[in-house]
Amino acid sequence: MLIKTLFDKETLDGKLKAGWGLSFLVDNRFLFDTGEKGEWLMENIKDLKVNIADIEAIIISHDHWDHWGGLWDMLERRNGIKVYICPRFGDGFKKKVREFKAELIEEKDFLEIFKDIYITGQADGAFDGSYIAEHALVIRTENGLSVITGCAHPGIVKMLDMVTRKFPDEKIYAVMGGFHLADEDEQTIGNIVETLKKMGVKKVYPTHCSGKNAVKIFEEAYGKDFGKIIVGQELEV
User: Fold this and answer.
1) pLDDT for position 234
2) 3-state SS class at 82
3) 3-state class of 8 per DSSP?
4) How confident is the model at residue 12 (pLDDT cuts 50, 70, 90)?
5) Residue 224 has pLDDT above 90, yes or no
6) Under 8 Å between Cβ of 33 and 21
7) pLDDT for residue 13
8) Distances in Å between the alpha carbon of 46 and those of 6, 51, 67, 232?
9) How many whole angstroms separate alpha carbon 42 and alpha carbon 53?
10) What are the E-state strand segments in 74-215?
11) Dihedral (CA of 207, 91, 44, 136) sign
């Protein structure tokens, strides 16, 4: 299954827009997060020749501006589209989605949203001392399970545990997205890397809030099975 990076902090060329937050297009039909700014996301969508009419649903990982910043421009162009969120997103966010006439779906439990594509359900996390709810996207292919995270505020290990409990007999092929390790020390990061290896995670693509130190440690540990996330690239999982 193909995953296209529509927004992140690095690009394949100077024409594509980059910034804070991220956005992935899965199977040309499902948008996971929308980056920090709608204008930039729309420019990338145009330059990457993505057909907005083909997008069937949008999954917002958590209620932070850099993950839903481009949502409103999307909803202007896709009336009635499904938007999946955690129940504990803010009331203001929910109200605005409904004002755009989107179909808001609040799901706290593991859910298959299309054949072999799932959301993990709500996980409890924290950011700057405040509560934050977050869910991840899970894709099942012949290679195994691939997990896409926005920031993994609840903890990347915790979120992967949710997946392995649901699929105890299946391996995790790839994990990509924000791992939220920028403020962690080397020992903590090293322990997380070892845990992911023990879990059988084959490939890793840390980006966004993962932090330069964590990216370096993951790259050293995973070697050829480490990959970067770059706007404009396509990954097959």
Assistant:
1) 96
2) strand
3) coil
4) confident
5) yes
6) yes
7) 83
8) 10, 8, 19, 11
9) 13
10) 82-85, 103-106, 111-114, 117-119, 123-127, 130-134, 137-141, 144-149, 172-178, 203-207
11) positive
pLDDT cut 70: percent of the chain above it: 100
The count of other CB atoms within 10 Å of the CB of residue 69 is 23
Q: pLDDT, tens digit, for every residue of 123-170?
A: 999 999 999 999 999 999 999 999 999 999 999 999 999 999 999 999
Burial grade of 172 (CB within 10 A; 0-12, 13-18, 19 or more): buried
Rounded distance between C-alpha atoms, residue 145 and residue 141, angstroms: 6
Residue of 149, 180, 145 whose CA lies nearest to 62? 149
Under 8 Å between Cβ of 55 and 81: yes
Mean pLDDT of the region 40-66: 97
Residues 141, 172: contact at Cβ < 8 Å?
no
Rounded Cα–Cα distance for residues 106 and 192 (Å):
30
C-alpha closest to that of 37 among 9, 12, 4: 9
